[in-house]
Design goal:
Blueprint: H1 33-57, E1 59-62, E2 65-68, H2 74-93, H3 97-101, E3 104-108, H4 117-128, H5 139-148, H6 159-164, E4 166-170
Antiparallel strand pairs: 1-2, 3-4
Helix pairs in contact: 1-2, 2-4
InterPro entries: Pra-immunoreactive (IPR051791), RDD (IPR010432)
Pfam families: RDD
Membrane topology: Multi-pass membrane protein
Length: about 170
């Protein structure tokens, strides 16, 4: 006898959704890579805007030459702000500003509900922690690669989604 649905079954434990379980387009469809990266660009712009202000204030004119003297704490502040932004938005609203603007939301992979606090924390920590690795100028590349993993697989669940047990779906 076949299983009744994703949330429960007659024959055993519930099964996890597969790509075929989602509509091709419209609400509840899997988020396409374009809108996901657009949302990430919006979110990064919001997180990096304060850093750009600090950097612009760090430019000085010394003996007719422009010098940039960024504070040592700036990278830690960016990482902290990025994690806090992602965590708070996903924990409270199930979406970031970028995702809201582009009609996306983060859902629990198992049941489609809003992620719990632990899931929101993991989803925020995994990508932003790459900037804390001793990779020098390659840290931002590692950061982008972690987000780029959402291009792989039928469900477009990147490393942050897999770690947190979440999935990104369309709301419109």
């Amino acid at each position: 006898m076949p299983q009744s649905d994703m949330t429960g079954s007659i024959d055993g434990p519930p099964r996890l959704p597969e790509a075929k379980d989602f509509p091709a387009t419209g609400p509840f469809s899997l988020a396409a890579p374009g809108p996901r990266f657009g949302a990430r660009a919006i979110d990064l712009s919001l997180v990096l805007a304060p850093a750009l202000v600090v950097i612009s204030l760090s430019i000085s004119d010394v003996a007719g030459q422009m010098q940039l003297d960024t504070p040592d704490w700036l990278l830690a502040a960016i990482v902290g702000l990025g994690m806090a932004y992602e965590f708070v938005c996903v924990a409270l609203f199930g979406r970031t500003v970028g995702k809201a603007l582009l009609g996306l939301r983060v859902a629990r992979y198992t049941d489609g509900l809003r992620p719990n606090i632990a899931q929101a924390a993991l989803r925020a920590i995994v990508p932003w922690s790459t900037l804390a690795l001793p990779l020098g100028p390659f840290a931002f590349g590692a950061f982008l690669i972690v987000y780029g993993t959402s291009l792989a697989g039928d469900l477009h669940r990147g490393v942050p989604d897999q770690a947190a047990g979440t999935i990104v779906i369309s709301t419109r």
